[in-house]
C-alpha cells in the first residue's frame, strides 16, 4: 500500500490523476490511498440531478463526475480520502468496501468521544441525524477510485445551498461543532490507521493459480 499525503489539490486534476492511475493498473500495481483537501467545489454524481443545487451565491464550480451518488461539497478543512484499490486482489465486494469505509469513520470518531452511526439506504456517517461524512465510489475493471470525505473544521455554508447527497433539508456537521480541535492531517492519520486495520490484505496473483500436481 502506498500512502500519498497531497495537501490542497484542485479537484479536476485530482480526478484525472485517479482515472489515469486506474486505467494504467496491472496485476503488480500497488494499491494507493490519497489524503488531501480540495478548494471549494461541488461535485455531481453520474446520475445526479442538477436541481439539487439550490443556489450558488459564491460561484463555486460544479463538476459532473463518474462516481455514484448525488451532489456534495468539498472545501478546505474537509478531509478527503481516495481509495485506489484492486478489489479482486483484496477479495472485496463494493458493498463490503462501503461498509468498511463507514466503519473506519465510525471508529475514528469514537476516538474523539463521538457516537456516529450508519443510516439505512443513505451511505455515509451521521451524528444525531446530521451528516458528518460522505461516500462515493467508482469501480472500473475491479478497481475502485473516489472515496470519502469527513468534515473536520470548515465553512459549512455551501452545504446550505444544496440538497446534500440529494436529501432535502439534510443537516451537515463537522468535528469542530462538537468541540473537537483537530487538524485535517491529524484526522487523516487516525482514519488511515482504521482503514489499514480493516482492509483485508491483498492476495498475490499466484494464490489464484490452480495447484500443479507432480507427474507420476
UniProtKB/TrEMBL annotation:
Which reaction is this enzyme known to catalyze?
Answer: octanoyl-[ACP] + L-lysyl-[protein] = N(6)-octanoyl-L-lysyl-[protein] + holo-[ACP] + H(+)
Which BP terms from GO are recorded?
Answer: protein lipoylation
Q: List the residues marked with site Lowers pKa of active site Cys.
A: 131
Keyword flag Nucleus: no
- Pfam families per the UniProt record, alphabetical: LplA-B_cat
Q: List locations, semicolon-separated.
A: Cytoplasm
Any idea which positions bind substrate?
Answer: 67-74, 134-136, 147-149
GO cellular component annotations, sorted alphabetically?
cytoplasm
EC category:
transferase
Predominant subcellular localization, coarse grouping: cytoplasm
Where in this chain does the record put each BPL/LPL catalytic domain?
27-203
Q: Which key words tag this protein in UniProt? A: Acyltransferase, Cytoplasm, Transferase
Q: Give its E.C. classification number.
A: 2.3.1.181
List membrane-spanning regions: none
The similarity annotation says: Belongs to the LipB family.
Q: Any other comment in the entry?
A: In the reaction, the free carboxyl group of octanoic acid is attached via an amide linkage to the epsilon-amino group of a specific lysine residue of lipoyl domains of lipoate-dependent enzymes.
| NCBIfam families assigned to the protein according to its UniProt record, in alphabetical order | lipB (TIGR00214), PRK14342.1 (NF010922), PRK14343.1 (NF010923)
What does the protein in this record do? Catalyzes the transfer of endogenously produced octanoic acid from octanoyl-acyl-carrier-protein onto the lipoyl domains of lipoate-dependent enzymes. Lipoyl-ACP can also act as a substrate although octanoyl-ACP is likely to be the physiological substrate.
* HAMAP family the UniProt entry points to: LipB (MF_00013)
Provide the protein name: Octanoyltransferase
What organism does the UniProt record list as the source? Parazoarcus communis
